[in-house]
Specification:
globular; mainly alpha
Length: 160
């Protein structure tokens, strides 16, 4: 198998929805997304956090590693990498993992946990509900226009 063949096969699995590996990948991804968001919500309940906080933290790290691998694989096998990275879903994928890395690097960044709930938006891609996200372009433009403010905020959080 050549590198191009592996890349093409990976693209078919990740971006494809045909029965087989592509469909199984989508089903596994939606299960992981739901489990991740459920763990996030359960961890926000104080008695559950007190009893299972360490388990929730370990699960969050595991979910972030899985989502990071998937994000990097999407970048790797995209036909136009820059277009994917700057697309609505590319930004959502990045924002879904970034808060956990910031929390690991800066323990005071737990307030960013709510941003991880953006993982639910990834379900729109899986269920082909993109037509319901007509405002996605506007959202992307707003994020792009706000990037200096976001950078200042994230810098402040890391320093704090």
């Amino acid at each position: 198998m050549t590198g191009d063949t592996i890349k093409e096969r990976l693209r078919e699995i990740i971006f494809g929805t045909e029965p087989g590996l592509g469909r199984n990948f989508d089903i596994a991804l939606i299960i992981v997304i739901i489990a991740s968001v459920l763990a996030l919500f359960l961890d926000s309940v104080e008695p559950l956090h007190a009893a299972y906080g360490e388990l929730f933290y370990t699960a969050e790290i595991a979910f972030t590693v899985l989502f990071s691998i998937e994000y990097l694989a999407r970048i790797y096998c995209s036909v136009d990498r820059k277009r994917y990275i700057t697309s609505f879903y590319g930004i959502v994928d990045l924002l879904a993992v970034l808060p956990t890395y910031l929390m690991v690097l800066s323990p005071g960044a737990q307030r960013l946990a709510v941003v991880r709930s953006l993982r639910l938006l990834r379900a729109f891609r899986i269920f082909k509900l993109g037509h319901m996200l007509s405002e996605a372009t506007e959202f992307r433009r707003a994020i792009w226009a706000s990037r200096p403010k976001i950078a200042v905020f994230l810098t402040f959080v890391v320093i704090a």
